[in-house]
Amino acid sequence: MYRNNKKDLKNFFQRSYDDNFELFSKNTVNGLLRSLFEPIAANNAVSLILTRFKHTNSLEGIIKRLEYCSNVEMYSFLDYDNILKDDFVETEFVIITSQRYNAVLIWDYSDSKDKNETKLYIRLNSKDVNEVFETVKTRLKVNLDDKFYSFRPERRENALLNDAVYNVLKMLNENIKENEFNSKEQELIANKLDVKTDKTQQDTSIRHCCHEIKNQLSVIDIYAKILEKQFGDDQNIALIQKSVSLIRLQLDDLRASVNINFKEKNLKEVVKSSIEVFDKILPQNNNKIKFVDNTTSDVFVFIDEDRIFTVINNIVKNANESAVDDEIEIKIENDDKFAKIYIKNHGEKIPQDVQQKLFEDGFTTKKDGWGVGLNVCQKYLAMHFGSIKLIKSDDSETQFLVTIPLSHK
């Protein structure tokens, strides 16, 4: 094993790739890390992750999501840098062990001329994952043997899998490095032309472009209606109109992306404002709203208020359309990490096959629906590291849960 010599992690790293020298872009390494982390975060998979990152700017989003996963334990070695010398001084690494797979990555930018390329050691489901863990665990202040070996990596090389992954990674790396080279060339040309484009100018260009495209879409929409009058209920015309509507939606999302405005808000006030919108709409179906506050104090969240407003309104609108003579309940709760909004009604239950498709882009059960509402809600909440899910739908009630991280976390 390698645990008794501080030089061994560095030697292990060098030994593995001295004969197969390949430099990987920092963007390639970060993309690979996101690919390994994403399934764990998306499924809240039971996992143990050991890391040493010197720079995490491009990984902050996925790391935040992992921190909010209740089944994921993460330990960082960067906190112990005052005692980490020798092989740890420049080396970065990630060790992952989970129910689904095990992986280890080791890299070091210290030998790179521009600090943007590195050799990369990677193993998946290999005994080497065990050996690297044995090397680094001596620096931990807690004993993680039981947790790590509860998902013990296979005691074999898995050479075919690792060779295949490495070859695919090399091809991707070539494309990424080519794109980086082209970007640098464009930047040099722009500098020579004294072109100064800041974010404000880019955002303005996006808005103008969206405006002009929407103008042209309006013309297409008008001609589609003329054709509809001439040819009646034609499926091709309906598809044109649907495409126009979806393009408009994407343009709205694009324009909104340059106008995103996160501020700390009291979620109770946002929910109450959303409820007021339906004061005159709900009575049309003889429905009403009941607001239940199960919190003990104000609930502050860091949000783009308009997007969260849209999420709540979308769910309430669906609840109102699917029931009559009903009481729609909106309940707020919170724990030490999250604010939780429960929205339920007592209409017809959602069939099991429909439940599995609710959040798919384009799926709808309405004759005149476009199937984008809940999908957009999911995207908006993802921007906030939040989530939406259907937690119940039977003969008695249908209930959705919206979760948003508290701002102090």
Q: How would you characterize the overall build of this protein?
A:
- The chain is of the alpha+beta class.
- The protein is built from twelve helices and 13 strands.
Shape: globular
Order of strands in the sheet with the most strands? 1-6-5-4-2-3
Please give the alpha-carbon distance between the first and last residues.
40 Å
Number of β-strand runs: 13
Which structural class is indicated by helix and strand composition?
alpha+beta
| Global Rg | 26 Å
Helix residue percentage:
40-55%
Overview features:
409 residues; alpha+beta; 6-stranded mixed sheet; 5-stranded mixed sheet; 12 helices; disordered N terminus; protein histidine kinase activity; phosphoprotein
Write the layout of secondary structure elements.
Blueprint: H1 8-17, E1 24-25, H2 26-43, E2 47-52, H3 60-68, E3 72-76, E4 92-98, E5 102-108, E6 117-124, H4 127-136, H5 145-149, H6 159-192, H7 199-231, H8 235-257, E7 262-266, H9 267-277, E8 288-293, E9 300-304, H10 305-321, E10 327-334, E11 338-345, H11 352-355, H12 373-383, E12 387-393, E13 398-405
Parallel strand pairs: 2-3, 8-10
Antiparallel strand pairs: 1-6, 2-4, 4-5, 5-6, 7-9, 10-11, 11-13, 12-13
Helix pairs in contact: 2-3, 7-8, 9-10, 10-12
